[in-house]
Amino acid sequence: MIPEKTGPAAVIVLAAGAGTRMKSRTPKILHEIGGRSMVGHALLAARSINPQQLAIVVRHERDLVAERVSRLDPSALIVDQDDIPGTGRAVEAALQALDAEQQLTGTVVVTYGDVPLLSGALLAELVATHEREANAVTVLTAVLDDATGYGRILRGEDGTVTGIREHKDSSEAEQLIREVNSGIYAFDAAVLREALGKVTTENAQGEKYLTDVLGLAREAGGRVAAVVTADRWQVEGANDRVQLAALGAELNRRTVEAWMRAGVTVVDPATTWIDASVTLDEDVRLLPNIQLHGATTVARDAVVGPDTTLTDVTVGEGAKVVRTHGSGAVIGAGAAVGPFTYLRPGTVLGESGKIGAFYETKNVTIGRGSKLSHLGYAGDAEIGEDTNIGCGNITANYDGEKKHRTVIGSGVRTGSNTVFVAPVTVGDGAYSGAGAVIRKDVPAGALALSIAAQRNTEGWVPAHRPGTRSAELAQAATKDSSSTPASTEEGK
Ligand code: UD1
Ligand code: CA
């Protein structure tokens, strides 16, 4: 049996920083792109390389961050950083915690909680290079047009990496270097432990720099090398909301492109927003201006859009969803929804069913082939198969205090403007007349009528609105204009 490939000894995710430029009450790493927090992206990438242990270092907004981390990745070790600042101190704290039971040996990877586009594949490449070359430290770098603010990669005459200089500590000549430190590294655990013990806070920022480990590792005779990535997005952090939006747009561009390569037609990639957590089948068609969020899934041959937002919605094979706002709903195979439809949680539309224009639904199960075609509300209800709900029907489910259920059978035909005053049950094959207010159960096969008889007061308009256009037309139509007001009642 081939043993499952095990990853590095540990990944340490740094997430103690304050993120003040976000100007937010929400901790920076909890801001989202692609429907997932930045720390969520970081944890997934870290997990994907299958580390034996995963630690995350927290400090700023500690409790909020720790609570989220333990939900996202319950087995992640949460480590608190003390008041000594710097990335070196953060890693030292993590290493001490990881070493508590047994000293780590092998590869330790360091990543950031605010670099959301970093992929597991690039991390795996970093680790593979590090281990293949038997390096003491391997740093992930990128060459940028504007390297301002970043730590610069120092290389010797032969091109080998000799160290990293922080921007604030750099000379003018060093500031011309465009190869930057991403802050993502693979270390040999023993080298890292040893070097961190020697890192001081004697620098422009009075911080313990993790970057000092590179120079110290070299002095100790270790090999230091770099993996240079051409994909700068993967090493870019979000410090403010402008960068957050740019990273979000790039992540979406990548997600949309990946789905197109997997066989999804996307008519307008620029206005199609797909969360990282969404799944789509081959031959799905996405029309312009749509947002697919959360656990939304769309099955083969379904068409979504234009102008549709779906969150946690399951769209069945061949279904059509047009100009719809939906969440927590299930749309059956071959069903049709929209335009202008609001699906709320608990909506389950059966195969080949229909929820048409200007309908709002909530907590309703609609059987196969049943249609709610236009203008209405269906909530806390159960509708059987092949039932036709007329235009403007409403389930009056709320008595001001409690919600009640409406149960409508199969093969039912309801007249326009029928109101179901719940709790109420309508049997199979029953009909209702236009404007019926169903307060009592309707037996199977019955016709339910509840409206009062219509009363026409003849000549009312000429008598009460004399001189109006309506009165003139009425007089012309009735010719016998001397008629006095009289009443008739239908059905008497
Ligand atoms: C750091 C690097 C720099 C690199 C840059 C890439 C050091 C000394 N410098 O810069 O070479 O080009 O990242 O973005 O490492 N953090 C902690 N605890 C701390 C300080 C930071 O956990 O005490 C975390 C932050 O939350 C963040 C990451 O470490 O996720 C980097 O911190 P940040 O201050 O953004 O980076 P710099 O120190 O400016
Ligand atoms: Ca800093």
TrEMBL record:
Cell location: Cytoplasm
Residues at which UDP-N-acetyl-alpha-D-glucosamine binds: 14-17, 28, 81, 86-87, 112-114, 151, 166, 181, 239, 344, 362, 377, 388
Molecular function via GO: glucosamine-1-phosphate N-acetyltransferase activity; magnesium ion binding; UDP-N-acetylglucosamine diphosphorylase activity
Record region (Disordered): 460-492
Pyrophosphorylase: region residues: 1-241
UniProt region (N-acetyltransferase), positions on chain: 263-492
Domain MobA-like NTP transferase, chain residue ranges per copy: 11-141
Keywords attached to this entry: Acyltransferase, Cell shape, Cell wall biogenesis/degradation, Cytoplasm, Magnesium, Metal-binding, Multifunctional enzyme, Nucleotidyltransferase, Peptidoglycan synthesis, Repeat, Transferase
Top EC class, one word: transferase
SUPFAM superfamilies hit by this protein: Nucleotide-diphospho-sugar transferases, Trimeric LpxA-like enzymes
One of the GO BP terms on file: cell wall organization
Cofactor: binding details: Binds 1 Mg(2+) ion per subunit.
Pfam families in UniProt: NTP_transf_3
Pathway: Bacterial outer membrane biogenesis; LPS lipid A biosynthesis; Nucleotide-sugar biosynthesis; UDP-N-acetyl-alpha-D-glucosamine biosynthesis; N-acetyl-alpha-D-glucosamine 1-phosphate from alpha-D-glucosamine 6-phosphate (route II): step 2/2; Nucleotide-sugar biosynthesis; UDP-N-acetyl-alpha-D-glucosamine biosynthesis; UDP-N-acetyl-alpha-D-glucosamine from N-acetyl-alpha-D-glucosamine 1-phosphate: step 1/1
Residues at the catalytic site: 374
Catalytic function, reaction form: N-acetyl-alpha-D-glucosamine 1-phosphate + UTP + H(+) = UDP-N-acetyl-alpha-D-glucosamine + diphosphate; alpha-D-glucosamine 1-phosphate + acetyl-CoA = N-acetyl-alpha-D-glucosamine 1-phosphate + CoA + H(+)
Cofactor(s) essential for the protein: Mg(2+)
Binding site for acetyl-CoA: 397-398, 416, 434
Ranges of compositional bias, category Polar residues: 478-492
Residues annotated to bind Mg(2+): 114, 239
EC number: 2.7.7.23, 2.3.1.157
PANTHER family from the UniProt entry: BIFUNCTIONAL PROTEIN GLMU, NUCLEOTIDYL TRANSFERASE
Complexes and interactors: Homotrimer.
UniProt family annotation: In the N-terminal section; belongs to the N-acetylglucosamine-1-phosphate uridyltransferase family.
Known function: Catalyzes the last two sequential reactions in the de novo biosynthetic pathway for UDP-N-acetylglucosamine (UDP-GlcNAc). The C-terminal domain catalyzes the transfer of acetyl group from acetyl coenzyme A to glucosamine-1-phosphate (GlcN-1-P) to produce N-acetylglucosamine-1-phosphate (GlcNAc-1-P), which is converted into UDP-GlcNAc by the transfer of uridine 5-monophosphate (from uridine 5-triphosphate), a reaction catalyzed by the N-terminal domain.
Protein's recorded name: Bifunctional protein GlmU
UniProt organism field: Arthrobacter nitrophenolicus
UniProt gene name: glmU
